[in-house]
Design goal:
Blueprint lengths: L13 H19 L5 H34 L10 H38 L2 H11 L5 H36 L30 H44 L5 H5 L3 H5 L1 H5 L2
Helix pairs in contact: 1-6, 2-3, 2-6
The protein binds a DNA duplex through α2.
DNA sequence: GCATCTACCCCATTATCGTT
DNA sequence: AACGATAATGGGGTAGATGC
């Protein structure tokens, strides 16, 4: 994180970064020891960088899938393909929306009951009595109405308790959604113009954005170097193995004419001018 | 305005690995 | 062995930035 805190004067401009990038690329080529024309060499490096970027992109997509997986109810250790994760997420959202609608309806129903109860205040009741005077027995009607409401209230309360217990059961059976830290992928927001950007003039978020972009570029190059190094290592190991075989006087005749690992690794580059 | 570069996205292909 | 899922890779398309 120290990387992001460097004072503006000490932060190299992207122009400078490009220069160092070229140096790194030059180093990469010499490191790989590949007999390439400069154009092909550059192309090769660009491809490595593109591959690294693509790898990172896929990783971010996968981390998104993992985040989704933690949010949908599923049993621990259950294997879910990406397609299954998407489908189940859609189903889960649909179910949640339905439940929300149902709860909202229930809520408004309860509100209506409350209003009716508070509405049947002594004052209003008295008025009703005056109006109904002589027509029948208002007290009995009022009692019936109250009984009905009471019954409905009890039913609703039972329904609510039932819902609650079902929900508790569901929560216990399915793992609680754990919010693992997800890989934060820089938003595809247009990056500020490289040459006009200094850390001084930008807000903290922009600083992090630009710095993280540079950091990512560096990471990409480092990954490319590591990739080429690993290829070299494999080639070296292969050569060592062959040397051992030769010194032991048990060299295989077909080994001499076979392609090297590097040949198969760089087919296009070595076969074309 | 145009050519070039770069980053990003998308797709097809291939390799690998686990499951049936 | 067949099959499905996934990762890696190569290559094309495109939008935005930049230099001329």
């Amino acid at each position: 994180m120290e990387y992001f805190m460097v004072p503006a004067q000490k932060v190299p401009s992207l122009q400078h970064f490009r220069k160092t990038e070229k140096e790194v690329i030059g180093g990469l080529c010499s490191l790989a020891n590949i007999p390439l024309t400069p154009r092909r060499r550059a192309r090769r490096i660009r491809r490595e960088i593109a591959n690294s970027n693509e790898r990172r992109r896929m990783q971010s997509i996968n981390s998104g899938f993992q985040s989704l997986k933690t949010l949908i109810p599923h049993s621990d250790g259950e294997k879910l393909s990406k397609a299954a994760i998407l489908q189940q997420t859609a189903e889960y959202i649909f179910a949640l929306e339905q439940e929300k609608t149902r709860l909202l309806q229930q809520n408004s129903q309860l509100k209506r009951f409350i209003q009716e109860f508070s509405g049947s205040s002594p004052k209003r009741r008295r008025g009703a009595e005056e109006k109904d005077e002589g027509i029948g027995s208002p007290d009995i009607l009022e009692e019936e109405k109250t009984d009905d409401l009471r019954r409905e209230m009890v039913e609703l309360r039972q329904q609510l308790d039932k819902e609650r217990s079902v929900r508790m059961m569901l929560e216990e059976s399915s793992p609680a959604p754990t919010h693992h830290p997800t890989v934060i992928v820089p938003a595809p927001a247009p990056a500020p113009p490289p040459h006009h950007v200094t850390v001084v003039t930008m807000g903290p978020a922009s600083v992090i954005n630009t710095a993280s972009t540079s950091r990512q570029n560096l990471d990409t190059i480092v990954q490319a170097i590591q990739h080429i190094e690993s290829i070299q290592e494999r080639v070296g190991e292969e050569e060592q193995r062959r040397a051992v075989i030769v010194t032991q006087g048990r060299a295989l005749t077909d080994t001499a004419g076979s392609d090297t690992a590097s040949d198969s690794e760089w087919p296009e580059d070595c076969s074309l001018p």
